[in-house]
Design brief:
Blueprint (H helix, E strand, L loop, with lengths): L1 H12 L29 E4 L9 H8 L13 E10 L3 H12 L5 E4 L16 E2 L4 H6 L5 H11 L6 H20 L29 E2 L12 H10 L5 E4 L2 E8 L5 E8 L4 E13 L8 H7 L7 E2 L8 H7 L7 H4 L5 E8 L2 E4 L10 E3 L14 H10 L4 E6 L1 H9 L4 H7 L11 E3 L2 H8 L3 H17 L28 E10 L13 E3 L5 E7 L16 H19 L38 E8 L4 E9 L2 E9 L4 H18 L11 H17 L2
Parallel strand pairs: 2-3, 2-9, 3-6, 9-18, 10-16
Antiparallel strand pairs: 1-2, 4-5, 7-8, 8-9, 11-12, 11-16, 13-14, 14-16, 15-16, 17-18, 19-20, 20-21
Bound molecules: flavin-adenine dinucleotide.
Amino acid sequence: MKKRGMALILAAAVVLGGCSSGQKTSGEASVASSPASESSSVSESTAQSETEGTTEAVETTEASESQNKEPEVKADEEKEADVIIVGAGGAGLAAAIAAADEGAESVIIVEKLGKTGGSLNFTSGSMSGAETIIQELDGIEDTKESYIEDIMSNGAQKGDRELIEIFVDEDVDAIQWLWDHGLDQYTFLEQGGKKSVFAPEHQLYSIQRTYKPRAMDPSSYKSAVHEILDKELEGYDNISVDYYTEIIELAGNDKGQVLTAVGYNSDTGKTVAYRAGKGIVMATGGYSGNPKMMGEYAEYGDNYLVGGADSADGKGIRIMQNVGAAVDEEKLTYIPTFPMGLEYSEGKGAIGDVYMWKAGGIYVNQEGKRFINETLSEVVPRETALEEQTGAVQYNIFTDKIVEDLKAAGASGMWDRYYEPEDGMGHKLIQSADTLEELAGLIQVPADALVQTVEDYNAAVEAGETDEFGRDFSGTPTAYSVAVNKIEADKYYAVPIKALVVMTLGGVTVNSDMQVVDEGGNAIPGLYAAGEVVGGIWGRFVSGGTGVMGPVAFGRITGRNVVNMDLQEGQPVKAASFVLEESLFEREAEKTESYDMTGVKDGTYEATVDGQNGDMTVQVVVADGKISQVNVVSNQETENIAGPALEKVPVAIVEANSPDVDGVTGATLTSQRIREAVKQCLDQAK
Ligand SMILES: Cc1cc2nc3c(=O)[nH]c(=O)nc-3n(C[C@H](O)[C@H](O)[C@H](O)COP(=O)(O)OP(=O)(O)OC[C@H]3O[C@@H](n4cnc5c(N)ncnc54)[C@H](O)[C@@H]3O)c2cc1C
């Protein structure tokens, strides 16, 4: 109900086009008379709706008409700042800090969730960089040129060399900045006593240039980068963050500048018109949380597991297209997958391979056949091979002996964490059987094919030769092969692993100043973009650690540019010829049937459901036939992500006297679990 109401408010509230200017044409935003206000402090004014008579927003505009007239937008509130940043992920936070350091007197970050970090809330945050302070301390000689070539090569030579060169230069300074602001105090995952490591989960770099610092406060943060940026942000009283506010529209003025963004605050139910004096930075992230968009643009995208945040919905791209931003449609198809997706909830995945193939296991597809050298060190061929299999699923087949050998080699981290413990999020995915035929039935692959595959594999192991896929059975240990084993035992196991997406590589086109450009290649004055929302930088596949450092480095550049660059005049603002279909952003309607409260008896009830990292127990108190209290007694959700749902959903359920309330964006799974547990409590109460 709340959602429907919101949609109506948004449709009614955003009125672009000036009655006064009368110059709005189809797809063209209304006009203003002069550059935006040079206001230097964060200011607010509350407006009434136009139907009530006066709009303070309009009055404000008229009062200052001689110096400034931005497009009229009908909104409940009006706020101004030198720089408006949309999105508080790595790119947005870095841009805000850089803009403030560069002299912006006021910066507002507009964030649709109730927290900072965006995708950084999901990742431990591997970072990469060449010629860095960390390599210097480790005594590793690297060059920027080598880093550039590695990124170009990893991206199948489809990246933008100029932007990559800019990134590689800035990346050194960004890492130095992080180091000087606390990174030097962090504990890093080390290899051979060095903090500079190879990252085998990605296509390998030619030298150790990935860094894996662990968050100091793991209950609140997953990555050091997020922790440091958040801590730094606290020190700036000229940067404010407007949470729970989603930018839904940008508007251009008659000078072709885009300096107005309209947002909707889901907490207050109010619309806000944000006016930027110098520019707007869109840092809204990619579309790894939008299965429809991946299905539309990737050949096998319908089968991908969603590993990104729900907030990574790609809408920011469309919002910019509506004011003319160019998007290369081909590059929207650049969606890298990880061949290591653990499906912890339907369609949702985490990075979590069992890695049993390292000790002798194999992968078979839904047809029961092997299709790749499982121990191949390059990730890209394994990635593309998995995508092409039926359902983009591979079953890791293994035995107890293989588990023992993996453990003995110290390579069972994922298994120990996610699969072996009964409350591990992958435990329920393990299938076991006394025979291969029985196992085949459990995972629905043809039994004769699986038996034949295992026989052929065992014969290759026995022969000790390299097989048809190039897998070597000589027994020489490598990072990808710690033991050689046949698949024969009293008990057989299978775990499904799927193609997982955690980031996307398509988005809006920018120039080397990070200005968003239109389809003619002209900069749209006032409009900048940074982070995953920018398309075409990296090429077809991802280079490890650039997902985190790309947004931070480009965020810093953008923050400086938006302050320093002159605000030019541009082409009339109008929508691009290619705009993403609106239907790609419509969420499937949530189940609407409402819980029947008839016959619910007073009392206190408790139910336990499967949670993110373990059980969640919820208590419900029913008094006078109504839900009077909902308490989440215990949970193992990731605090930083689940926090808003744990706080808001119980309150909403009590208010609605029903478990059928909206979930909290960004924490939909936690919301769902709370609702499910409450329903179970109410079932007991009948
Ligand atoms: C599980 C996982 C693991 C990863 N591991 C790594 C890794 O180890 N190393 C690596 O380099 N990369 C990794 N990545 C990728 C990397 O984390 C992201 O590419 C990066 O954090 C993106 O930063 P960003 O600031 O561009 O976007 P985001 O982090 O997505 O931030 C965008 C922000 O904008 C907000 N927003 C969106 N639209 C609006 C709007 N209209 N109005 C207001 N706010 C809006 C969102 O809520 C969000 O807070 C991983 C990603 C995931 C999901």
